[in-house]
Amino acid sequence: MDRNLNELIRVIPDFPKPGIVFKDITPLIADGDAFIECCNQIAKFAQDCDYVAGIEARGFIFASAVCAIAGKGFIPIRKSGKLPGQTISKSYDLEYGQATLEIHSGLIDAGKRVLVVDDVLATGGTAVAAAQLLKQAGLVPTAVVFLLEIAQLGGRSQIARALPGLQTHTILAE
Ligand code: AMP
């Protein structure tokens, strides 16, 4: 594709709080060619995994499409109180507030390899919590892939510090 897909990311200042520069992916996912191009690129990282985990909510959009492209099962990493079975939870700090993520325990066989997908890498706290939850559930995170990264927030180095050896990839250059 010869277009710059970054032009389909809308930048909205002061959302959801003053001082946050929000990267809105909705123009990109509304463009069918751009959406499939991004999902195809993410799917290249799914070759050596058994499952793809998406982080609620925008990670679900990309991760489930990647599952369909790569022929992998989907694991939802959800906000607290949404999963009906037995769960493992982790609370962490966000660029704008605090959050808790959960994963079902005992559903997927221990040792299975899981690619983690989300839309935006900001401080990295969400991705670290997601990968740690997978590990606590006995699974093996293979890499984390984002559509885009806000590099000045240092998320890539936070992931490297918390989970040495876990590769971080982004699809769109800044
Ligand atoms: P973080 O844990 O700081 O890396 O935040 C990542 C999560 O929060 C992702 O699930 C993003 O969807 C969302 N997020 C954080 N900051 C932004 C931002 N500036 N624009 C869009 N999404 C963001």
TrEMBL record:
Keywords: Cytoplasm, Glycosyltransferase, Purine salvage, Transferase
Record flagged with keyword Cytoplasm: yes
GO biological process terms held by the UniProt record: adenine salvage; AMP salvage; purine ribonucleoside salvage
Pfam families, sorted: Pribosyltran
Enzyme class, UniProt record, top EC level: transferase
Location within or outside the cell: Cytoplasm
UniProt keyword Transmembrane present: no
Domain Phosphoribosyltransferase: 45-145
InterPro entries linked: Ade_phspho_trans (IPR005764), PRTase-like (IPR029057), PRTase_dom (IPR000836), UPRTase/APRTase (IPR050054)
Residue spans crossing the bilayer: none
E.C. number: 2.4.2.7
Classification via Gene3D superfamilies: 3.40.50.2020
Pathway annotation from the record: Purine metabolism; AMP biosynthesis via salvage pathway; AMP from adenine: step 1/1
One term under GO cellular component: cytoplasm
Catalysed conversion reaction: AMP + diphosphate = 5-phospho-alpha-D-ribose 1-diphosphate + adenine
CDD domains assigned to the protein according to its UniProt record, in alphabetical order: PRTases_typeI
GO MF annotations, alphabetized: adenine binding; adenine phosphoribosyltransferase activity; AMP binding
Protein family (similarity comment): Belongs to the purine/pyrimidine phosphoribosyltransferase family.
NCBIfam families in the record: PRK02304.1-3, PRK02304.1-5
Task performed by this protein: Catalyzes a salvage reaction resulting in the formation of AMP, that is energically less costly than de novo synthesis.
Record-given protein name: adenine phosphoribosyltransferase
Lineage: unclassified sequences, metagenomes, ecological metagenomes
